[in-house]
Each structure stands twice: as C-alpha cells, then as structure tokens.
Amino acid sequence: MPRAAGSQDTAESQKWDRLAADQGNAPAEYNLGLLYAKNLGGSPDYVHAHVWFYLAASHFPESDVSDRTLAINNRNAVASKMTSGQIAEAQWLALEWKQK
C-alpha cells in the first residue's frame, strides 16, 4: 500500500523509492508521484508526477483494484492541471521508461 508523502524523512524516502521504482515497484512509483505532485519545499512537477502515477497504475496487479484506482485518479487529477503539451511529454517519458 502506498504511503502518504512526508510520512518519513522525505530525502531518505525519495532515495529508496527511486531505487525501488527503477525496478518497477508500483508502491514506490506511486510515492514518487505524490512527492512530485506535492513537491514539498518547491513547486509541483506535474509532468513527472503524471509519469510516476501512470507507471504505478500500470504496475499494480489487476487484482489490486484499490491501489490501481488510486494511482489512476491521482494521475487524472494531476493531468487536469497540465497543458496538452505537458500531458504528451509525460506520456512519452513514461513510454520511454517502460522500454528500458
């Protein structure tokens, strides 16, 4: 289950989430989406938040309806704050990441 941003030391949490996300770990991808969407201490990065929520939604098992739906809903919420160009960029980055 994903955790709320800020539930641990943010820098340390982000480091471990990034390592796990690079391995396709859906909860870690979701957590990175939250960190980018909220960007504690800076302005939100909706493009990267969208990427990580998209990846999380695609990596949660179909049987994990709750977490998968949460990732999709967060991706859609972030998308509502983005331009069509930003959404296209996020989709391209996510597809590029999946091809690695």
Describe the structure.
The chain has helices spanning 10-21, 26-38, 46-59, 65-79, 84-98. The radius of gyration is 12 Å and the shape is globular. Helices cover 69% and strands 0% of the residues. Helix 1 (10-21) crosses helix 2 (26-38) and helix 2 (26-38) runs parallel beside helix 4 (65-79). The chain has 100 residues and is an all-alpha fold. It has one domain (10-98). The mean pLDDT is 88. It contains five helices and no strands.
Features:
single chain; 100 residues; mainly alpha; globular
In what range is the share of β-strand residues?
A: under 5%
Sketch the major β-sheet.
none
Q: Which oligomeric state applies?
A: single chain
For the record, give the distance between the C-alpha atoms at the N and C termini, rounded to a whole number.
25 Å
> Would you tell me the overall average pLDDT?
88
Radius of gyration: 12 Å
Regions with little confidence, pLDDT below 50 for 5+ residues: none
Q: How helical, in percent, are the residues?
A: 55-70%
Structure, briefly:
It is built from five helices and no strands. The protein is mostly helical and about 100 residues long.
